[in-house]
Design a protein that fits this description.
Number of strands: 17
Order of helices and strands: HEEEHEHEHEHEEEEEHEEEEEE
Number of domains: 2
Shape: elongated
Structural class: alpha+beta
Largest sheet: 8 strands, mixed
Distance between the termini: 64 Å
Strand content: 35-45%
Radius of gyration: 25 Å
Number of helices: 6
């Protein structure tokens, strides 16, 4: 017997008209809209969420299962553990408005190493960030008695990026532009605002220059993971179970396809190292933030 077209049902026609690609499977239909990474599974009430989870594409921002009948509290609890929304005939009407919401226009653009940052450099140009925190101010901020202060230039791989931030309600969010900076000695990622730092040919304060301890390829891998983590949003999903209101909270990160990185530049950022009886304190000599040592790191 030939399998019925998934678009022949009223819900299938609505999803298809809203830009979803439908795929009929044994026991259900998968509807995926690549533009904003939404996925909806249409299934019978005897299909468990754990079984259906594998049907969702990797990187789906919003995952929902539409059942033809109430699947029961056990299935709802199983779905909640996996971050899957359960929709049945009693909740389908209100849920349709969000599922069929058209995707936002625009995207972060194709992979593009020509993304421009604020540091247009050629191989012979200066690559040192100007410090704003002097020795006396660093001593006051560090608060470490009897310290020996050393200014070190720490290598960072810095690249401009674009990312589409996810929305708590599932639709695509705005495209943001920032700089990602990877400490090439500690692997610590930072997000910088453009025009926050100034490059100078040299600095007068005696200093030491550290060498990178990772490659640009390693920095790129760290950067993508960090950008997704920095731009994750918290999603609260509410369901009614009998007389109880259950709120599930999870964090949703932008998928890797929504992150675009430009070319990396190796820059040297001044850090104050204070070494005393209490141990070592490291301060960013541009922002004054405590990177490491006794007290809260920023």
């Amino acid at each position: 017997m030939a399998r019925a077209s998934p678009s022949s049902s009223p819900l299938g026609r609505l999803l298809s008209a809203a830009g979803y690609r439908l795929d009929a499977r044994e026991g259900g239909t998968v509807a995926v809209r690549a533009r904003d990474h939404r996925a909806v599974v249409i299934a019978t009430a005897d299909r468990r969420p754990a079984e259906l989870e594998a049907w969702f594409p990797a990187g789906s921002v919003r995952r929902a299962v539409v059942y033809d009948d109430d699947p029961g509290p056990d299935a709802r609890a199983e779905a909640a553990e996996r971050g899957i929304e359960v929709i049945d005939p009693s909740t389908l009407g209100p849920a349709l408005g969000e599922i069929l919401l058209p995707p936002a226009e625009g995207d972060p653009g194709p992979d593009d190493d020509t993304l421009e940052g604020p540091f247009p450099l050629s191989p012979g140009d200066a690559r040192t960030i100007r410090p704003r925190i002097g020795r006396e101010e660093a001593q006051s901020i560090a608060g470490v008695d009897g310290s020996r202060f050393t200014l070190r230039l720490v290598p960072y791989f810095v690249a401009p990026y674009r990312v589409r931030s996810p929305s708590p309600h599932g639709e695509a969010g705005p495209v943001l532009r920032r700089l990602i900076a990877i400490n090439a000695t500690s692997r610590r990622p930072e997000v910088w605002e453009e025009a926050d730092r100034e490059i100078v040919p040299e600095i007068a304060e005696p200093h030491q220059r550290l060498e990178p301890q990772l490659s640009e390829a390693q920095a790129r891998s760290i950067a993508v993971d960090a950008i997704r983590r920095f731009h994750a949003v918290r999603v609260d999903h509410t369901e009614q179970h009998g007389g109880a209101l259950v709120i599930e909270t999870r964090r949703v990160s932008p998928p890797p396809s929504d992150v675009r990185l430009g070319a990396f530049t190796l820059l040297y950022v001044p850090h104050w190292y204070a070494e005393g009886r209490e141990g070592r304190v490291v301060l960013d000599a541009v922002t004054g933030h405590r990177i490491a040592g006794p007290g809260p790191a920023e």
